[in-house]
Amino acid sequence: MNKIDWVEKDYLKKTLPKFKVGDQVKVSLRVREGDKTRIQIFEGTVIRKRGRGTCATFTVLKKTHGDVVEKIFPIHSPQVEDVTVAVKGKARRAKLYYLRNKFSKVS
Q1: CA-to-CA distance for 99 and 15, rounded, in angstroms?
Q2: Residue 4: which H helix or E strand, with range?
Q3: 59-64: long-range contacts at Cβ-Cβ below 8 A with a sequence spacing of 24 or more?
Q4: What does the DSSP 8-state code read for residue 93?
Q5: Listed range (47-51, 74-78, 83-87, 98-102) with the worst mean pLDDT
Q6: Is 23 helix (H, G, I), strand (E, B) or coil?
Q7: Domains of the chain as residue ranges with CATH
Q8: Which candidate, 97, 38, 49, places its Cα nearest to that of 73?
Q9: Pairwise CA distance, residues 61 & 86, whole Å
């Protein structure tokens, strides 16, 4: 274990969610509005996972009302309350960037 891993170990989450690229997930975010906090759910398809340690992130793509929204979430962030898998997916690639163009076309 190098020095960076030794410092970061206190900030890592103990229970990591088990999901992979292609899965449809529900990300529960802790949102602060004024002096109140609430949980907001962002549901979409995981198109990318990258990094390790406290820098690890995943990208979720969702289509709402004809618009395509893409968000990047740090896995170990305290604002990310929970990640649950809604639908298991099967991906043949590590990064599903082609879904950006596929979702943005008008059906």
Answers
A1: 29
A2: helix 3-8
A3: 60/25, 60/27, 61/96, 61/99, 61/100, 61/103, 63/103
A4: S
A5: 98-102
A6: coil
A7: 3-104 (2.30.30.790)
A8: 49
A9: 14
Listed in sequence order, the residues at least 6 apart from 7 whose beta carbon sits closer than 8 Å to its beta carbon are none
Which amino acid, 28?
A: S
Determine the Cα–Cα distance for residues 79 and 46; give it in Å rounded to an integer. Answer: 18
Q: Tokens in use for 105?
A: 């076309």
CB–CB of 11/4 below 8 Å? no
Provide the phi-psi class of 34: left if phi over 0, else alpha when psi is between -120 and 50, else beta: left
Residue 47: both structure tokens together: 């198109």
Q: Over 90: is that where the pLDDT of 39 sits?
A: yes
Contact predicate 55/69, CB 8 Å: no
- Rounded to two decimals, what is the model's pTM? 0.88
Mean pLDDT of 55-72: 93
